[in-house]
Structures are given as C-alpha cells and as structure tokens.
Amino acid sequence: MPAEAPLLREVLTRENMLDLGARRRVVDQAIVLFESFYVHRPQKEAMHAVIPIQRLRLLRAALEALPDDTPAEHLSPDLAFHREMVAIFAAWRDLHTSYLLPRPYSQYLAFLPFMVEACQDEGRTGYVVTRLIGQPRPTDFVAGVELLNWNGVPIARAIERNGEGQAGSNPDAHVARGLYALTMRPLARSLPPDEDWVSVTYRNRRGTIREARFEWRALDLTQDDTGPVGELAGVVRYRDVPDFGIDLQAALIQNARRHFFQSAPRKAAGRAARAAGPQILDTALPSVFRAYALPGTRFGYLRIFSFDVVSADGFVDACCDLLDRLPPDGLILDIRGNPGGNILAAEKLLQLFTPRTIRPEALQFINSPGTLALCERHAQGTQPGLGLGAWVASIRESVQTGAPYSNAVPITPEPDANAIGQRYYGPVVLITDPLCYSAADIFAAGFQDHDLGAILGVGGRTGAGGANVWQHGLLEQLLHGADETGLAPLPLDLGMTVAIRRTLRVGENAGDVLEDFGVAPAGLYAMTRRDVLGSNEDLLAEAVRQLEALTLTRPARTLRLASPQIEAGMLTLTLTTGNLKRVDLWLDHRPWQSLDVQDGEVVVTGRAPGSSPRRVRALGFAATTTSEPVAVASARL
Known about the structure:
Blueprint: H1 8-11, H2 20-37, H3 41-48, H4 52-64, H5 78-90, E1 99-100, E2 108-111, E3 114-121, E4 124-132, E5 146-150, E6 153-154, H6 155-163, H7 171-180, E7 184-186, E8 197-203, E9 209-215, E10 217-220, H8 234-239, E11 244-246, H9 248-261, H10 268-276, E12 289-293, E13 300-304, H11 312-325, E14 331-334, E15 340-342, H12 343-349, E16 362-364, H13 369-377, H14 392-401, E17 409-410, H15 414-417, E18 428-432, H16 439-449, E19 454-458, E20 467-471, H17 472-478, E21 495-504, E22 523-525, H18 529-533, H19 537-550, E23 558-567, E24 570-578, E25 582-587, E26 590-596, E27 600-607, E28 615-621, E29 631-636
Parallel strand pairs: 13-14, 14-18, 18-19, 19-22
Antiparallel strand pairs: 1-21, 2-7, 2-10, 3-4, 5-6, 5-8, 8-9, 11-15, 12-13, 16-17, 16-21, 20-21, 23-24, 24-27, 25-26, 25-28, 28-29
C-alpha cells in the first residue's frame, strides 16, 4: 500500500462550516438551476417518476422554519446536508447535473487497494479482481480471485446498490457505474462510504473460499501532478468552457487508475502479449490515444480514452497522424470508458471515416425566462459554444406557442465538421460500452447516424449522456447583474453542474433524444475472463471477425491526391487509386474532370480555370454509373 495514502476516516475530520444562511443559499441556487436551466427536467420527471425540485422545496421549508440566529452546533452536521443534496441531484439520473462537494471532500478520492471487473466465466457472470494497489494481505488475494460477497451482500446486489447512487441514465449504465465506482469514488460528487472498511468473501485461485477486510484510503488529488487527476480544480477548468460534455466522476476515476496502474505490471499473459507485439505508435496525445497494428491481422487498433482536450483541431490533427500510420485495410476504434469532453473534438472526428457530409447533432435549450436572458445577453459570442443568438427567436416565441424547447441548433458548425474530409478508407468497427458518456455518446450517435461502420457494444447501450454541461459558476458569470434570474455565488467552494442543452440525433434517427436512451449497438459482447485479466484478446478477436465480415460489403479503398500545381494555365496532379472505378475531380465547387480509373498511380493534367482555385477535391466511386461516392480526398493548391 502506498505510504502516502492515509486512511479515509483520518482525513475527513472537519467541523460545521455551512451556517443556516449558506444552506438556504445552496438550496435556492439548486432550485434556480432546476427551474430555469435544466433542459431534461420534463423528460426526467416523466421517465423516472421523480420530482427532485419538490424535495428541494421541502428542504428549503425545513430550513426556513429555523430561526435565523440558530447556532451552528444546533444544525445537523455538514455531511448530512451534503448527503441530502447529493441524493436530490442523483434522483435525476443524470451525471451532467451534479452537486459537487466542497473541501475537504472534493480534494480526495476514496479507494480500496484493488480493481474489480465483470466477465463471463463458464456461462455465468463473475466479478474478478484484475488489478492491485500495493501489497494487500492476505497473500492469496491476487489478480484472478473471484469476489462472492461484499459486506455480507452478494456481490451482484452490492454493485446494483452502489449503482443507485451513481446516476446511471439507463439500466446498462446503472450496473456499469455501480461496478466502475465500487472501489474508487471521487468525493467531488460521491459521498464518502458509510463504512470505514469493507469485508469481502472471495474464491482464491485454488478454489478455497476465504474472507478479507480492506480499509478505505484516500488519494489527495491536489497533490497529484500526473494530469487531470490533480485538477479537481478540474471543475474550475470546465467552468469557462461552454462547449464541453463530460462525466467528471468517470474522468477522475480514469485518471486515478492511470495514476495507480500506469507502471504496474499486468498478469503474466498480459505481459507476454505485449512483449510479442504490438508496437504502440508515438503520438502527441499519449493520454488520449493508443494506436497500433494488431498483431497477426491486417487491421489497426485505435483507442480513444477521452475527448477531454482543449484544442479540437489539435485533437483531430493528432488522430489524422495516427490514421496515416495504421494499416489501411480496416480499423477497430475503441471508445470504451470514454467519459467525454470537448464536443467539437468528438464531432469533428467523424469526417475522417466517411465520404459523406457530416451533420452535427443539434442542441436545444429549455424555454424559460432564464435561458432567454442568457441567449439574449450572449447572442454574439466569440468563444466556441457561446454564440447563442440562433436560439433567441424560438425561446421568445414560446411565450405564445407554449413549446417546451427551443429550436435545435448545432454548436459545431457544419463547415468545421467537414473541413478536412475523409482520411481513413477501410471499414471500421466501433467498440462502445455503458461508460461512454456525453461527448463520447455524441460521437457514437454520429457514427451510427452517418452509418460509418458496425458498432460492437460491451455490456449494452452507451451511457446516454446526451447534453452539454455547464457549471453553475459559468452561468452566474455569464448572467452577472441579471437579478431576475436569481443566480448568486455559491458559498465556500461548492459547485453544481447542469445539463444546459440537450442533443437531438440526425440521419435515420433524426429528432431522437440521446439522453436516457444512448446508442444501441448492432452486436453485444460480454467480456471473458481472458479479456479482463489479459489484454482484451477475445474482445479483439470478435472485433476482427466483424471487420472481416464488413470487408465483404465495405472493402478498403485507396484515394490520394499529390503534388497539385498550376503552371502556364495547366493544372497537374498525381492521383493514386485502389478498388475504385471512377474518380470525379472538382476545383473548389466546380467540376473539372471525370476519369475511369484502375488501381495504381496516374498523372492527371488539364486546363485550369482562370479563377485561381484553392482546393482540388476527388470523389471516388465503386462503379462508373453510381452517383454516391465511396471515397473522398482533397488537397490545397
């Protein structure tokens, strides 16, 4: 056990800090968020049969009944108040809409010294210890032991109970999040565990059933310098970013796992698999991407751990670089556990895998005086995601029409979503799971809506976080001085987040709401014991089988433009094609030449228009008579 990790009960010792006035203000601000800005409120109340806002009103009435001069020692402890607020927010089943605890809670992540994953084991679901932190005792508690009971409760039920407080939007996410946060809980938005220690019953590798006890310990996030784990100030980081959609809790757990396990060895099979290959490609964003040629196949593998990047264009450029170096015959694109991040990055990435025009998802506000004031004040915005003028007219009209939601408008401009165009020409299988959330949900929805390939789902639908999330602090900053909204600063370093705009799908699913429903995969997969204890060998084998099947209907293509130049009024370029029958060449938005082609390289020459074109674009077709391209490439002149 790391010497720097104290027992949790030793660090969470603090007297009352919220007086009666501060508690009233916290409740009032939550009511303002729910009534004026929470976009999913009507849907959540209907789907989950909950009215959290009434629970807030009852809490406010109880606080109002107390005399203003009530001494702090006569108030319930802070933790009891926070527990009620966390429960009220969690009732929405929306990880975007959260109550963020103050210090000392927010600076810690509570953890047990092991990680648990689910797998199919001899036809049944088992829960296996896959990673260890330090050297816990007893000595036979090692990777591969199966957990049977948790504090005397059957392990499956214990995971289900933990999931009840994790705000999973659908049943698949409910279970997945109960497991994901079983042994690691950021106290920014999770309450400290009720117990000081956990007793587990497990079956060791010899088949003997034994018991062990593990105490909850605390990782101080503010002392970690390895990245976003140390930025629970990370919430401050998102305060000024209006185009984000992220599951903060999962992001912190993901980075905590990196902190604990990035140098820890896997079991012997995992080590052997890595020793035999694959060769990981270098990238400018190693915490975001992992890419390699899949050993023993003709396909590539690209893992996207997160969309949590500041620069969407830098993110897409880094991905382009990896795609150029991966095998062209097919790609496994893996976004399991991706908590989301920059919505622009997620939507701009889609264009790289298709010749089709990408239509970004459209977003809606709830119609209210608060959202009207927000959009009117920031109708012209220079920051991405903050030019709100397109929503103003429909929110104003709702006074007469009674419409609950504004018009739906993308936050990613369509030209930006198509500025680069296709960069990968092989078939793609996307791997998802119920921990894909927010911007990752949006990416998976766009992948499906534009029919970019097959989706293989581990554990069911994606997490169903279909919204853009804002901090209370951002709203208060943007509407500062607008007294009619009721927004005011929160006490201490408390925080709240709210789903401010909901996303609607496009294509064949046009108009469908992403929140609560998520993205349903075409095929389902259950992780095996070999997967969770090794390096996903069986999962990748299944993805390879799906890629092989996909190549029958979507074979890999080749289409490249090189060395375009204009000299003496003539345009010359080198065109490389593979598995295409016809290529149409366009200069800017005007047709230039149409060629029947064979596999290989050809130099194309023709008269250039007098208007000095800036870009040449090639559209590749699978047959000479078809009208829909199967490959697109472009180059600047």
